[in-house]
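Hi support team,

I've been running sequence recovery on a batch of backbones for a student project. Most finish fine, but this one hangs at about 90% for roughly twenty minutes before it completes. I'm not sure whether the input is malformed or the queue is just slow. I've pasted the structure tokens below so you can try to reproduce it. Let me know if you need the job ID as well.

Thanks,
M.K.
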């Protein structure tokens, strides 16, 4: 079921991106030869008007074949050259190229807004008076690699329900459960083994709420060095509530959160690229298709709204990555347009096509390497 959900999410994201290119190209009078889900070879297809709509074997991708996107003799001087993308003004070409990214961001906005309407996990300090908030819980928001928390099996999204000393029943459990009080308890008992109780999976599901103490727990001991001047177990945490908003506030907050996440994603990618050139970033920080399937599985266990959140985040990541000025990506093609505008003449088609082909080959190789890295992390970590 997890793989099916992943493929459905991927199909929605790709359809959104490619539909952006498709509809803007159609509106601009550019000929669209094929709209494909997945990469060839083709399983089946049907033709409506001048466009072939196809379903292809390789599910991790999709494409729109726009006439003149990769200039050739036919699109430059053929009988239908006026409907070629390359024959259109530069601003029209730019609109067609940026449309895919725009539709991914719109999809993320709609999905996040829907999340707020049905109920979205939100930090307690961001709740406003008009929100309907329920089920405030102390949730692990990140787990440091190779920390006691990771080694004990704790994961992002686990809800902490109790923390106590493992060897002294006379010490009462932590109360109330707030990030500050839990951190102080851990620091004050840096030499003791702790017992941490937690809930995992659909933690905001009312049908699973109970006053009975949970039976899932781990024994864990703080260590020094993870945080400066403090003993720690390697988690960050926050009080999270399920928040519902009415329609218009949900749409407005969805837009603001989409903008914030897009900025943070772009900032993270830029930092990663700079770190890669400096030898500080590695493949361990990159997740490919196999790793994403695992993340979908975690989101599925936590509930439908987490799947929506995951879809929005991936859609934003897809948009930002596509704007990177690298051949074969939309950002690379936009860079070519800018170069042509500055130099006042077209880049030779053979050069542009070769660069895009090499860039596409590099991206396929990178995907293969990242997938291998995902498999190694999955089976040998």
């Amino acid at each position: 079921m997890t793989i099916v959900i992943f493929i459905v999410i991927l199909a929605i994201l790709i359809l959104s991106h490619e539909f952006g290119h498709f509809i803007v190209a159609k509106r601009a009078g550019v000929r669209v030869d094929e709209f494909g889900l997945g990469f060839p070879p083709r399983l089946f297809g049907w033709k409506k008007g001048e466009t072939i709509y196809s379903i292809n074997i390789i599910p991790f991708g999709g494409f729109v074949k726009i006439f003149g996107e990769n200039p050739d003799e036919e699109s430059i001087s053929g009988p239908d050259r006026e409907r070629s993308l390359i024959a259109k003004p530069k601003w029209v070409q730019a609109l067609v190229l940026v449309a895919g990214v725009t539709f991914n961001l719109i999809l993320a906005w709609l999905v996040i807004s829907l999340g707020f309407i049905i109920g979205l996990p939100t930090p307690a300090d961001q709740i406003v008076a008009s929100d309907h908030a329920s089920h405030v819980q102390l949730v692990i928001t990140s787990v440091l690699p190779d920390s006691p928390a990771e080694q004990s099996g704790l994961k992002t999204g686990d809800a902490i329900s109790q923390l106590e000393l493992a060897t002294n029943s006379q010490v009462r459990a932590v109360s109330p459960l707030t990030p500050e009080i839990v951190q102080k308890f851990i620091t004050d008992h840096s030499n003791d083994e702790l017992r941490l109780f937690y809930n995992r999976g659909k933690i905001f599901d009312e049908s699973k709420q109970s006053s009975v103490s949970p039976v899932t727990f781990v024994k864990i001991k703080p260590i020094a060095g993870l945080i400066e001047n403090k003993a720690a177990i390697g988690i960050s945490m926050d009080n999270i509530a399920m928040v519902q908003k009415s329609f218009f506030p949900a749409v407005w907050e969805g837009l603001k959160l989409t903008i914030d996440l897009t900025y943070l994603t772009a900032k993270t990618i830029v930092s990663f690229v700079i770190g890669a050139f400096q030898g500080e970033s590695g493949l361990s920080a990159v997740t490919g298709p196999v790793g994403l399937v695992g993340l979908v599985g975690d989101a599925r266990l936590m509930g439908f709204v987490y799947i929506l959140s995951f879809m929005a985040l991936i859609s934003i990541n897809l948009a930002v990555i596509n704007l990177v000025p690298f051949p074969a990506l939309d950002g690379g093609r936009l860079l070519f347009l800018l170069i042509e505008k500055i130099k006042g003449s077209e880049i030779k088609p053979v050069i542009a096509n070769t660069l895009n082909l090499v860039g596409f080959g590099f991206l396929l190789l990178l995907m293969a390497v990242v997938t291998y890295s995902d498999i190694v992390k999955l089976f040998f970590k």
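--
Follow-up from support: It reproduced on our side and the slowdown came from queue contention, not your input. The chain has ten helices and ten strands. No action needed from you.
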